[in-house]
Amino acid sequence: MSFARDLSHLWRAQGFRRLTYVRLLSQGGDGMFQVGIAAAFFFDPTTATTPGAIAAGFAVLLAPFTIVGPFVGPLIDRWQRQRILMFGNLVRLSLVGAICGLLLMDAATWSLYLVALLTLSVNRFLLAAMTAGIPRVVAPEDLLTANAIMPTLGTVAAAVGGAIGGIVTFLLPDVSDAGLAFSALVGSGIAFGLSAWATVLIGHFQLGPVDPLERLRLIAQVRELGRELGFAVRYLHARVTPFQALGVMAAQRLLYGIMFVASILISRHVLGDPDKPEEALGVFTIVVAFAAVGFGAAAVLTPVFKERFSRHSWIVLCLIIGAAGQALLAVSSAPWALLSAAVIVSFAVQGGKIAVDTIVQRDTEDGVRGRAFTLYDMAYNVAFISSAVIGGLVLPDDGYSRPLMAALVVVYLLVALVFSRAPRQASPAPTLSSTN
After folding, report:
1. What is the distance between the terminal CA atoms of the chain, rounded to a whole angstrom?
2. pLDDT 10s digits, 352-403
3. 132: closest CA among 362, 351, 424, 298?
4. How far apart, in whole angstroms, are the C-alpha atoms of residue 397 and residue 395?
5. Which domains does the chain have, with CATH numbers?
6. DSSP state, 13?
7. For residue 160, how many other CB atoms are within 10 A of its CB?
8. Full-model pTM
9. How many CB atoms lie within 10 A of CB 91?
10. Exposed, middle or buried: residue 94 (CB in 10 Å: 0-12, 13-18, 19+)?
């Protein structure tokens, strides 16, 4: 099987193998952390009963890195990425310990919010550093396969971690939110610690950048960050293909986000008993598990078809597949429709993301790649926050609107049509002076 051969080939590369360990442990911890904090405090099923409440929760979860990212992201191109991953996970471990201490002391909710938001901000920073480091541990011709395997396995690991937390919540409904959060946080802290240990196994200079700063000059660096991020935007725009790939990723993520918000509400009001929030959370956990199947299928099938479809053609095909999956929800809100759509649309989103990652990596020089993926994460978060806001405005309280689901199908097809006409080859790389 092509996927098995590709995985076996990549697995022989020590750098790829060790970076995968780091990602699996890190994102597995993310899933448990988000159940312990996001579900218990931001997405508390006893309070998040309306689209507006869920939109507010998404904004709280995703806004921090969107705001902080422009200031810290360019550091991915200035500091050793291996050190970023190691110390970042150690920082998260410390923050998890602080949250556990606050829970034991029954501290004010605002203090839990503050430390949780700091932890989530570090998480997005680490994901950008890991993605920027992939081209340093695999050959150029293996980028697509590496992007199919590593980020998708990370997503599945996060889903598994979250599913474990959700199952515990479902099986132990009488345990307090603080008790459930504490249990999940302990697990996430262990995962973060192991991820930091796995990072030590990676060579200090193996993940790049090629010309890192020899010493930290924080004030001088901060003054340059805005200029450098602006250069990154102009660079990607001039290269054309990575800029357009980011645009289609953001569009796809926005459409997926609206379905995600709808799924939360449908799980509670249509498939579950509104008076039993723990039952609704259990139903939504099943939806997340089906979505994980779609993510995993994308990791398997995308490399298989890499010889038959160009990256651009694969993105267009994934958008059409996403439209087909979304069409199921335009037909029915029954369990079969929601679970089938979860698999199909998740496959389409992840399959498109794999190709987008490869385009951005391939058509962006290493010295700009960290900033490119910082912009990537910002676009991702803005799209997801926007989807929550749009969902809050247009979704009914039970989350299901047949006209809206049909409208999403049309938008998927329009995005596919527009991107099918996009250039396939990158323009020459600009210099700093040419973009001023």
Report:
1. 49
2. 999 999 999 889 888 888 788 878 888 888 888 888 888 888 888 888 899 9
3. 362
4. 7
5. 2-211+218-435 (1.20.1250.20)
6. S
7. 18
8. 0.72
9. 17
10. middle
